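Q&A log
Question type: sequence-to-structure
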Amino acid sequence: MGDHGRCDCGDAEAIRGLLSDYGRLLDQRDYGAWAALFAPEGEWVGGEAYGTIAGREELAGFAIREFMATPPCVHMLGNMKIAVEGEQADAWSRWMLVEQGDRALRVALAGHYSDRLVKLEGGWRFLRREVTLDLPAAR
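Response status: OK
Response body:
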């Protein structure tokens, strides 16, 4: 619920679509459309391994480099929590990357996203997407 008892259900559903499009577009290798899910100044934050990638052009280039040599894969997303406040929102979700191996599928990685979103003229976009790797866990 937003201010004055108003439900932000339409915004929350649009944000769910944005979160789903993120994985779907990466899986389809549509890097330009994937980068367009971010605000023009949007950031993807990948911790010590990747640092911060900002701006749509840099984001598209990053995705091309990361996925060019990877096997076919699918991003699975769930456990979404979304909080909308006017033209901005925060979201948290769990992700899992499933890859096609030589003989079987395998869960390659799993983690969670912490997002800051902004509503622009074209709809909801990622302002900041922070990626955390939970599995494989450090031992």
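Response note: Residues 3-127 form a domain with the Nuclear Transport Factor 2; Chain: A, fold (CATH 3.10.450.50).
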